[in-house]
Automatic annotation (TrEMBL):
One of its GO terms (molecular function) is oxidoreductase activity. InterPro entries: NAD(P)-bd_dom_sf (IPR036291), SDR_DHRS6-like (IPR051122), SDR_fam (IPR002347). Keywords: Oxidoreductase. This is Short-chain dehydrogenase/reductase SDR. It comes from the Bacteria. The keyword Nucleus does not apply. The lineage of its organism: Bacteria, Pseudomonadati, Pseudomonadota, Betaproteobacteria, Burkholderiales. Belongs to the short-chain dehydrogenases/reductases (SDR) family. NCBIfam families: PRK07578.1. SUPFAM superfamilies: NAD(P)-binding Rossmann-fold domains (SSF51735).
Length: 252
């Protein structure tokens, strides 16, 4: 029987449809506050290679978070990297045909993690139609299509973990397009998890400001979260039998 675990800021009871009991809660993971909204279901065995390692397709592998996720996953999983260039397979998230080709080249996997996709950050009065279109086509529809195309290429009971961001929960000047995209990713994942229950687990990680990124911008890194700590939350989304969940990685 599936159960819901709901963070205080979501009307989880409306999602349960009378099939599961709702409760609010918080969890701490390696010093990070993780607010969760989840439909938790049993998981089935996932695709493994000849050495017994689960195959994980990592989209956006060449960035800061992708590099850390790969490092943390590799002791227990076989990681197939994907990005525009410099990876095992190439992919353009804004192009659905490219996503289809990526899955065809990568072969069957047990899990997919996406830390790719871009959105425009600029003041409201300077964002044009093209800026919104770029953001929606790239980080939002790119991840939506990733889930759609994953069906049949990820083992039954396997997982897809998407990425949103703190601007789904917090308002910031210049973040209009980014907030639309991040909130859209989280909303889509909740519905996809319901409709794909028993076939595919769908979760989202919503990172806060990353310490290394702040440092590169000349800001105080102590106000951010270490990339390695955020990467551990992605690992949790793969390893635990959860679906429909948004994990918000923030300092406790």
């Amino acid at each position: 029987m599936p159960r819901f675990v709901a963070a205080f800021f979501w009307p989880a009871a409306s999602l349960a449809r009378g099939r599961a009991a709702c409760r609010a809660g918080r969890q701490y993971d390696n010093g990070l506050l993780v607010l969760v909204i989840a439909l938790v279901t049993p998981t089935r065995s996932c695709h493994v290679d000849s050495g017994g390692l689960m195959r994980v397709l990592l989209v956006g592998a060449t960035g800061l978070l992708g590099t850390e996720i790969k490092r943390i996953l590799e002791p227990q999983h076989e990681v197939i990297t994907a990005s525009r260039k410099g990876s095992d397979v190439s992919v353009d998230l804004s192009d659905k045909a490219s996503i289809v080709a990526m899955f065809g080249e990568a072969g069957k996997v047990g899990a997919v993690v996406c830390v790719g996709g871009a959105a425009k950050f600029a003041p409201l009065d300077s964002l044009g139609d093209d800026d919104y279109a770029f953001s929606l086509a790239n980080k939002l529809m790119g991840q939506v299509n990733l889930v759609r195309c994953a069906v049949g290429h990820v083992d039954e009971g396997g997982s897809v973990t998407l990425t949103s961001g703190t601007l789904a929960q917090q308002a910031m000047v210049g973040g209009a397009a980014v907030s639309i995209v991040n909130a859209g990713v989280e909303g889509f994942a909740r519905v996809a998890a319901l409709e794909l229950e028993g076939k595919l687990r769908v979760n989202v990680v919503s990172p806060g400001w990353v310490a290394e990124t702040l440092q590169s911008m000349g800001q105080d890194p102590s106000q951010g979260i270490a990339a390695a700590d955020v990467a551990r939350v992605y690992k949790r989304a793969i390893d635990e039998p959860i679906t429909g969940q948004t994990l918000l990685a923030a300092k406790s």
